[in-house]
Amino acid sequence: MPPNAAASVGSREIEVEVLRYRSDTDSRPVPQAYRVPFTYDMSVLQGLQYIKDHLDGTLSFRWSCRMAICGSCGMMIGAEPKLACMTFLRDYHPGPLRIEPLTHFPIERDLVVTVGGFVKKIESIYPYLIPKTPRRLDEGEYLQTPMQLAQFESFSDCINCMLCYAACPQFGENPDFIGPGVMALLQRYNGDSRDGAQATRMELVHTENGAWSCTAVGYCSEVCPKQVDPANAVNQNKTKSAIDFFLRFLGRPARSGGAASDGNAP
Amino acid sequence: MSGPRPYLRPAETLWWARRPYLAYTLREATGIAVAGYALVLLVGLISLASGEGAYDVWLNFLKSPWSLALHLLFLIGMIAHVWTWFRIMPKTMPRLVIGGRIVPQNRITAAGLAVAVAAFIVILLVAEWMQP
Amino acid sequence: MKRSVAPVFWLLFGAGGMLAALTGPALVLITGLAAPTGIGLSPNFMSFARVASFAQNPFGKLILFGIIALFIWHGAERIYLTLRDMHAGGRLALMWICYGTAGALTVVTFAALTIIGV
Question: pTM of the entire structure?
Fold first, then answer.
């Protein structure tokens, strides 16, 4: 904000309660109230930045792009998982607006949660193309039709914001559940016509912590800011896993990919 | 400095009874109507196997206000089941692509509901045709 | 990696759910409301003679078994998962109670249809 902007920021104020936690001084999280002046176009993120710049420099929160693409600013705003940069203070006036860190995650400090477990889950699902039929550079590109792309495209839109994990009550019950976001990434690769590692990833899907922790609540897809539809990723893998559960005895390889093609011919 | 001690908030044991999860719990509760109705049929089947006397007792129960009220509840539960079933069904399928376009999930739901309505009508017609 | 056994119950849940979605409302209307009151259907629609002959027919047995067993398995899975959500008991205990009951009732259904004979 430009200098002296604080004086020119709107005459309306909203009361904001932020859940604070500093492990060196607090034994448990405690809400702290702030009065934040705001204009019509101010996001919750800008409100937090106002608090940090003018009211309380000790407040900690993650943010980066402020345009809903980096996935850093996920938090509970009014008890709903949202991105702070695309949620607006005007919608919660006069407040009090409760802001808390994402549910189901340990709190590092204030609005910052521990993401290590989530990152490990991403790493565990082979999050890269393992080509069905590798092509050398001189053989040219892998070819894919728009229909083949349509099979998995939405799952590639995930920004790793973890709102779906805050939304998912089964992840709350079982922190080892692979979870909606990582299953979406898994399906992004399994559903890609170029990929050949479906069977390897399906081994994770078949487990209790794979697709089978999901009870189709569907709230994950409702809160997703990018319309990834992780509920679809998880539940279509229930179908694949269930079919494979019985067909594996017929001796055919556990081939449970998305679009049916060899990845090269259009 | 020993580093930060992350704080794990205690689990919310009543999450299933609160918004937005209450709707999901109510959806799952339609399973009670489905199983409950099957139990009534099973009791009828057992009484059928026990002979005409026992079966007539069951038939008389069906005519009672208690049974009629119960079946009205079953009917409401069944209709709620049909509605929520086809709303969740598209989530269990891969992206449906027809004629080069992704079929929106609410269109798949609408198609499913249409089939359910058609089946409802067909069964009623068959019952009418099977009249004594 | 250990496979979950959940697919077995999920498929039964799915089959029962689809069958209930397509036939449930009509069946409840017919057997629970129309036939007993005689409104829309003859009050003799479910007389002993008619129902017994239906249950003695192999096709009729299949329909009765399919509806009763699959509806019960559908309900059992939903009740199991909801009881788990509610922390009503340990996972294994709830599985035995819900799936065990469904299994027992399936056997009872089969037995009743066998006793009815042809």
Answer: 0.92
